[in-house]
């Protein structure tokens, strides 16, 4: 079964990463990273446009010194404010984090954060925009404080590469950190202590996520298995292990409005699959051949994946 994308964008250059903004006042905003360029644009879906069509509006191109490995929007990003305020972070192949600020007109600034000594695999802001977290192949999770002009205020030492880092709006001051060897930690940023550690049955772990809809649910893509934990009912052992990608996985994401649906990308053929928790039959299955990011739309039932020079959007029919 192969599911064609519902909507498709094509670009002149190869895409290396992308991110859909999840803030309420900029949920149509997308940042797309090509080699040394960051493209900001608006995707308008038929569900929210007056003429029932899918539209793409390219707003601004920003030069980026180093190829992007990860992207994250600041939670106060807004297209409704005057002037518009768009703030996002790009983790570069040169191990440097760059915070870009733009009003989409003239004023752009960039701030470089240097502390990592190897590739940065994931970055995330907390809900209030107080902290930026980053995880790296240098076996560390670093916390940067906006109050101190993004000084590196905390470093959690890991026993393997950091692959994913997540915050949750209902769990302030807690950060989820996933390690390549198969361990997922929850840290308290205030006490700088690990609260809980979870272990996947087998590794390597390539990606993890924390359900926005239910803070008790954590998922990871370890080897080719989507491993899910329900901290409320089975705090230590996985509540579900589903083999999804027989030759190994790359990325997993919960749907924002339910902990019962996950999207993941893995091998063979770099395939996108969307599953409900209880069914072995995927809602979506699409061979991509190349991988350049996976993201859900914050409000609409679309999952997006980038591959080569394309950005595809699949509408998911939730049961």
TrEMBL record:
Recorded GO CC terms: nuclear pore outer ring
Keyword Cell cycle: no
InterPro entries: NUP37, WD40/YVTN_repeat-like_dom_sf, WD40_repeat_dom_sf, WD40_rpt
Extent of the WD repeats: 113-145
Cited Pfam families: WD40
Keyword annotations of the record: WD repeat
Protein name from the UniProt record: Nucleoporin Nup37
Organism whose genome encodes this protein: Musca domestica (House fly)
């Amino acid at each position: 079964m192969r599911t064609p994308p519902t909507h498709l964008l094509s670009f002149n250059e190869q895409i290396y990463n992308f991110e859909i903004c999840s803030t309420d006042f900029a949920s149509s905003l997308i940042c797309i990273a090509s080699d040394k360029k960051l493209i900001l644009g608006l995707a308008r879906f038929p569900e929210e446009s007056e003429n029932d069509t899918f539209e793409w509006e390219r707003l601004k191109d920003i030069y980026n010194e180093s190829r992007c490995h990860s992207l994250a929007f600041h939670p106060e990003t807004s297209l409704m404010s005057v002037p518009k305020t768009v703030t996002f972070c790009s983790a570069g192949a040169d191990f440097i984090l760059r915070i870009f600020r733009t009003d989409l007109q003239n004023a752009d600034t960039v701030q470089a954060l240097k502390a990592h000594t190897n590739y940065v695999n994931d970055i995330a802001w907390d809900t209030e925009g107080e902290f930026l977290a980053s995880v790296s192949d240098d076996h560390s999770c670093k916390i940067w404080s906006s109050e101190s002009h993004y000084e590196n205020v905390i470093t959690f030492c890991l026993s393997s590469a950091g692959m994913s880092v997540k915050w949750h709006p209902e769990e302030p001051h807690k950060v989820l950190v996933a390690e390549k060897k198969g361990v997922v930690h929850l840290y308290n940023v205030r006490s700088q202590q690990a609260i809980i550690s979870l272990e996947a049955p087998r590794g390597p772990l390539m990606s993890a996520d924390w359900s926005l809809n239910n803070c008790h649910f954590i998922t990871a893509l370890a080897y080719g298995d989507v491993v899910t934990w329900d901290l409320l009912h089975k705090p230590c052992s996985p509540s579900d292990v589903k083999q999804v990608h027989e030759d190994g996985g790359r990325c997993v994401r919960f749907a924002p409005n339910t902990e019962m649906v996950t999207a993941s990308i893995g091998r063979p053929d770099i395939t996108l699959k969307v599953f409900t928790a209880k069914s072995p039959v995927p809602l979506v299955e699409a061979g991509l051949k190349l991988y350049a990011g996976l993201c859900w739309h914050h409000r609409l039932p679309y999952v997006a994946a980038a591959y080569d020079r394309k950005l595809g959007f699949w509408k998911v029919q939730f049961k």
